Amino acid sequence: LRKNVEDFTGPRERSDLGFVTFDITADILNGKNGLQTFRNKNTFIIFDWNVKQLFLYLSAEYSTKNNALNQVVLWDKIMLRGDNPRLSLKDMKSKYFFFDDGNGLKGNRNITLTLSWNVVPNAGILPLVTGSGHVSVPFPDTYETTKSY
Amino acid sequence: VRAAAAAAMLSLDFLDDVRRMNKRQLYYQVLNFGMIVSSALMIWKGLMVVTGSESPIVVVLSGSMEPAFHRGDLLFLTNRIEDPIRVGEIVVFRIEGREIPIVHRVLKIHEKQNGDIKFLTKGDNNAVDDRGLYKQGQHWLEKKDVVGRARGFVPYIGIVTILMNDYPKFKYAVLFLLGLFVLVHRE
To answer: Residue ranges of the Peptidase S24/S26A/S26B/S26C domain (chain B) (predicted)?
Structure first.
């Protein structure tokens, strides 16, 4: 559901820093992952009477030599009940610095970006749901020294 | 009988009532009281075992997770070792040397092959991550700092705990009234 635009890395204090720009288009209201209402058999409606908000986050998951599993949240958003459930964001920059624990981003071919969300009910269980569709992004082999971002 | 007990408490007759109870009834009431307290303790310990958390129910103390959680909301936690810590989860953790647990969301994790994990947290309502809150020189949290993961919640109910903490006189008044009621209650 999302596309990605290329990026470059730069080492800072001996750790790799990645820059990613991305587009997000997501239709969360009628997604296949969500809470079921009683009336519709095939479509699931997320914002039912017991959902106060969704906490959406875009996370990057990858492996490095140092660490078998790394997950970094690049961007997040709180979507309250009543907000437009169709997202169409273009050319977004990551909200948080994408630092690796070491130098594992350089030349890393397989960084998977996934959109997930935490359903916050008015009262009850707090499930974490992963959206369908994810994108793999490779990082280049060289560092960029230009700070244009 | 309950209505009678309430009316009796309001006037000073209840003192006569207590004197009228013979020694046996008094011991019975005390034992009853003891049973209630031990059952409550057993339920609490049972919850600790089932959830794997040393504190399976916590009250949210700050506004750093708004608008999801507000001060006074009650959170239900689990801390099972089989559940790995992943980004997006809401964790309750303690900083070494501090008593108060903090409820925030996991922002970054770095996990080694053998399962050792270090992670960073941030409150939804805070502008920056929690590194400033950690101990001097501490950059990451580890599994041992975690009290539990929030799995469910109920709003508002925890306000009573906060009131009891902030106004100790209120706490003593509540305990006193409860104790009195159980002792005098004749059912």
So the answer is: 44-135
